[in-house]
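Researcher: We plan to redesign the surface later, but first we want a full-length starting point. Tokens attached.
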């Protein structure tokens, strides 16, 4: 079967079989359970941002592109009060009486300062807050320099329940979808010198340095993952009804073969699948690297019991992540003085552009998952290459004791990091299902 890949994953010292076994037996089941928890399932995103690159592409009216909104009462109270800003970030505490209100960001979900009846506390908070806010702004401006993505925590951002809006076939295709992929590959991926074709053939990749190959491989791996999801949750049949039309979703082997078989893709399909394994290893390594930091996160939603369960499950999951025998080695990238620094900056700029292109996706459901996966990958790149996670304390630090890191990840970054990795883990697991169907 063309989708039973063998041997070493390009640019890594690890075999496909090792990843298949590790993912399907150890990672996938744990992650599936973890991502159904409230902390991870509610993702704050702005789907209304204007596309800054072109305006002649209307938003798509395909029924299956619709994103179902969240009911206010479904959002955990701790998240509604959550402010990505100062108190949480500077002091790392979860004391709701201190998590004020005075940073009202225009979001209806925030509490209104007018309703803060404890005047004395309100006064203290205001004074702490003003100083904290100023400090925070400085910190944020500085920290943003290390971001690989545009962050979506503005007033138009809304919570979306990811479990209500699964990634699957939507029917988004044609000119609009191609314009996105084309501008990602053509304008925002590195290319070998004198290469004018739209898409890069895998055998051309060795004409580029490791860093540029890595860039291409992670984008191609993410593209493969998106397309695997639409094949494994394809619209198989529809029931028309005026009240609630419904669809039946399941694997479509023909669609999968069309997209990945060497016969229909000029031999490229299996390479794209290998790139899926590549991006998986890169994000796995980011999780392992940030593990001492993540193991001390509060995962606050306002429910003591749920939050305790999540902290426990995350720690267990991270210890499995760290046990992987053959992690991707990011230390061999961006070495070599000024030239390497310049390359890293280009790498970051290209990736930021791709995060902005996500605002041009013409199907809301695809945009939702596209943004989530790009932001999660951006968080992984930040962990691997910003240098700020390089000196984390070793694992096993006492609970409650913060890992020594010069900065912290915001909730949105943690949610997208885990969910993006969840998509890749799911894709690798789906490959096994396709192999089974093919064998049968
Ligand atoms: P496309 O997938 O559009 O690919 C265009 C060209 O890119 C191909 O002809 C091939 O030459 C090359 N290519 C294909 N795969 C790879 C790869 N892995 N690496 C390198 N090159 C490659 N559709 C849904 O149904 N559900 C979704 O959730 C969804 N999410 C999307 C999210 C984003 C951000 C985008 C841009 C599109 C999304 N789509 C989604 C659309 C989907 O990805 C395809 O674009 C669409 O199905 C049309 O497919 P296609 O066969 O024309 O090839």
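Model: Full-length starting sequence:
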């Amino acid at each position: 079967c063309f989708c039973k890949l063998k041997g070493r994953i390009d640019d890594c010292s690890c075999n496909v079989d090792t990843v298949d076994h590790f993912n399907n037996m150890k990672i996938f089941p744990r992650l599936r359970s973890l991502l159904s928890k409230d902390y991870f399932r509610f993702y704050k995103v702005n789907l209304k941002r204007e596309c800054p690159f072109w305006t002649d592409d209307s938003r798509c009216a395909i029924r299956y592109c619709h994103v179902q909104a969240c009911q206010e009462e479904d959002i955990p109270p701790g998240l509604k009060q959550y402010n990505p800003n100062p108190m949480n970030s500077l002091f790392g505490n979860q004391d709701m009486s201190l998590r004020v209100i005075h940073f009202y960001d225009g979001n209806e979900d925030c509490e209104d300062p007018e309703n803060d009846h404890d005047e004395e506390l309100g006064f203290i908070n205001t004074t702490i807050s003003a100083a904290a806010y100023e400090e925070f702004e400085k910190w944020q401006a500085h920290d943003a320099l290390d971001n690989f993505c545009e962050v979506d925590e503005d007033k138009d951002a809304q919570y979306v329940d990811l479990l209500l809006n699964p990634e699957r076939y939507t029917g988004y295709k044609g000119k609009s979808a191609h314009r996105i992929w084309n501008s990602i590959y053509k304008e925002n991926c590195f290319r070998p010198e004198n290469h004018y074709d739209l898409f890069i053939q895998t055998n051309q990749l060795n004409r580029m340095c490791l860093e540029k190959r890595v860039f291409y491989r992670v984008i191609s791996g993410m593209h493969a993952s998106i397309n695997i999801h639409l094949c494994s949750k394809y619209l198989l049949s529809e029931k028309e009804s005026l009240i609630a039309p419904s669809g039946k979703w399941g694997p479509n082997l023909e669609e999968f073969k069309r997209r990945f078989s060497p016969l229909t893709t000029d031999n490229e399909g299996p390479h794209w699948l290998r790139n899926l394994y590549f991006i998986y290893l890169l994000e796995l390594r980011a999780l392992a690297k940030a593990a001492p930091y993540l193991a001390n996160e509060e995962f606050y939603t306002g429910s003591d019991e749920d939050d305790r369960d999540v902290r426990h499950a995350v720690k267990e999951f991270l210890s499995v992540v760290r046990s992987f025998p053959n992690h991707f080695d990011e230390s061999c990238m961006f070495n070599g003085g000024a030239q390497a620094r310049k390359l890293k900056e280009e790498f970051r700029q290209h990736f930021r552009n791709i995060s902005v292109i996500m605002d041009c996706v013409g199907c809301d459901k695809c945009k939702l998952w596209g943004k989530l996966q790009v932001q999660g990958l951006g968080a992984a790149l930040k962990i691997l290459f910003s240098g700020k996670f390089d000196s984390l304390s070793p694992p096993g630090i006492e609970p409650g004791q913060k890992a020594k890191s010069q900065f912290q990840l915001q909730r949105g970054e943690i949610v997208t990091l885990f969910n993006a990795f969840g998509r890749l883990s799911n894709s690798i697991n789906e490959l096994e299902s396709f192999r089974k169907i093919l064998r049968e």
